[in-house]
Amino acid sequence: MDVVVTGIGLQSCLGFLSQSWAGILASKSGIAMQQPFPELPTYPLGLINDTPSQLSPLTKLIVKAAISDANLQTPLPECGVAIGSSRGCQNIWEKIITSNFNLDCSRPLVFPSPRQSLPHTLDILSINWLNILPHQSAVSAARIIETTAPVLSPMAACATGIFAIARGSELIQTGECQRVIAGAVETPVTKLSLAGFARMGALAKTGCYPFDRDREGLVLGEGGAVFVLETAELARSRGAKIYGVVKGFGLTCDASSTTAPTGTSSAIAIKSCLQRSNLTPNDIGYIHAHGTSTKLNDSHEAKLIQHLFNHSVAISSTKGATGHTLGASGAMGVAWCLMALRSGYLPPCVGLRELDFGINVVREAQQQKINNALCFSFGFGGQNAVLAVGKSIQ
Known about the structure:
Blueprint: E1 3-12, E2 15-16, H1 17-25, E3 32-34, E4 43-45, H2 55-69, E5 80-84, H3 90-100, H4 136-145, E6 151-152, H5 160-173, E7 179-186, H6 191-200, E8 223-231, H7 232-237, E9 244-253, H8 263-276, E10 286-288, H9 295-308, E11 314-316, H10 319-322, H11 329-343, E12 345-346, E13 366-367, E14 372-379, E15 383-390
Parallel strand pairs: 5-6, 5-7, 10-11, 10-14
Antiparallel strand pairs: 1-2, 1-8, 1-9, 3-4, 7-8, 9-15, 12-13, 14-15
Helix pairs in contact: 2-4, 5-11
InterPro entries: Beta-ketoacyl_synthase, Ketoacyl_synth_C, Ketoacyl_synth_N, PKS_Beta-ketoAc_synthase_dom, Thiolase-like
Organism: Hyella patelloides LEGE 07179
Family: Belongs to the thiolase-like superfamily. Beta-ketoacyl-ACP synthases family.
């Protein structure tokens, strides 16, 4: 059973889907030096607005955009949901903690009594905890469409987006749903995320330069991508436009604390994806790489591509334009793959100046008709996810 994509909702620091795609093709970047928190240094960030976004409002915007793009109207009671986020509502949790608790590390942490309300702080008793749990993106989408179908909220670090699309596809292929809204949304610009990545030495100081010899590290970005998935039969019966077909996926885990893909497990994910998709490496015209601009990831990923694919396959990472949206990055990468299939243009590797590896990286928007594309996502903890999309015969 073919699973096709009939709608895309996307927002990045470059704007919504059409704005972001046009910006990437023009090699523009939405990354700018920002200091959203006075107590932390200035960093290059991919913020959508002047201040960090909130998960639920951003999710609602993106989901509604996907529904509109698919020419659908709510309610959609039989539509499944598979939307994930690796950070969830972390920014709200951080605000609760810093507003109510004394975090002097030299003393034991003392929690206020259940009815204690501290002056001039956020009242924790006034918060609806059900609205700030990790699955909030999926819940927000389910409420918009008023569904009674399965609602899933995958979480797999930076590979979350592809995991979610894979789970959405499975709901259709197993016959549980004929239509699913799937993807991921992330609002990762928080004090803890910035401080944590900085402590690891993973944050860039000036910008994001994937596969560049002078790459500095990752740049956090906000955004997400959500897709309307349908059976090909349902899509054609209603005359829907089709961006492409979800041909297959491969999901593996290194079961370790690695921060970069290992050759064995990530290679298995790629080979599994190709096998499920009935494709060979020579069938792939474009690869959207994970391309985080960190020393380790880009090196491992380049070696992986060199090992499994011929030199002619076109490769790029768009994180130099949008920043690294963590759990949403794979979903956004899938969106760029679908746009490449539909438009006949391959997106450039924005930010690349001097290539550090012997791979065929797209430096400027390149007109090239392709039939199949792969999207890679490799997350902390050894989460590996690969998704194949291809052209649909309408």
